[in-house]
Amino acid sequence: MIIIAGYSHAENVEERDAAVAAFAPMVERARRQDGCIDMAITADSVDPTRSNIIEIWRDEQAWKAWRKVAKGPRPRAQRSHVSLYRSDEVEKLT
């Protein structure tokens, strides 16, 4: 399983909301992609300039296939922090 988690900061709430909206079509495409467990780019509930990013992929092969076709928008540069995690074991907790 591949997990990508991070955040970015815009200059103001309007820029943040515009970036989140600009990525919505890409998120919709990702969720239909084979191997996508979940993907979201959302406005933060506490910080008005922060957006949160999460991607969860079945495996590295599915993630790499997506990266080849993702083609997201190119918003103006923002401060970002993104981490990539890999797990060979997945345990579903109830």
Protein architecture, described:
With 94 residues, the protein is α+β, with helices and mostly antiparallel strands. The chain has a single domain (2-71), classed as Alpha-Beta Plaits, CATH 3.30.70. The chain contains two helices and four strands; from the N terminus they run βαββαβ. It has helices at residues 13-32, 60-69; strands at residues 2-9, 36-43, 50-57, 79-86. The protein has a four-stranded antiparallel sheet with strand order 2-3-1-4. A hairpin with a 6-residue loop joins β2 (36-43) and β3 (50-57). The relative contact order is 0.33.
List descriptors.
94 residues; alpha+beta; Alpha-Beta Plaits; 4 strands; 34% strand
Provide the gyration radius in Å. 14 Å
- pLDDT < 50 stretches: none
Order of helices and strands: EHEEHE
The overall pLDDT, averaged over residues, is 89
Count the E strands: 4
Second-tier CATH architecture: 2-Layer Sandwich
**First and last CA, distance:** 18 Å
CATH class: Alpha Beta
Strands of the biggest beta sheet: in what spatial order? 2-3-1-4
Give the domain tally: 1
The percent of residues in helical segments reads 25-40%
Name the shape in a single word. Answer: globular
Tell me the structural class.
alpha+beta
The number of helices is: 2
Quick take:
The protein is of the alpha+beta class and 94 residues long. It has helices at 13-32, 60-69, and strands at residues 2-9, 36-43, 50-57, 79-86. The radius of gyration is 14 Å and the shape is globular.
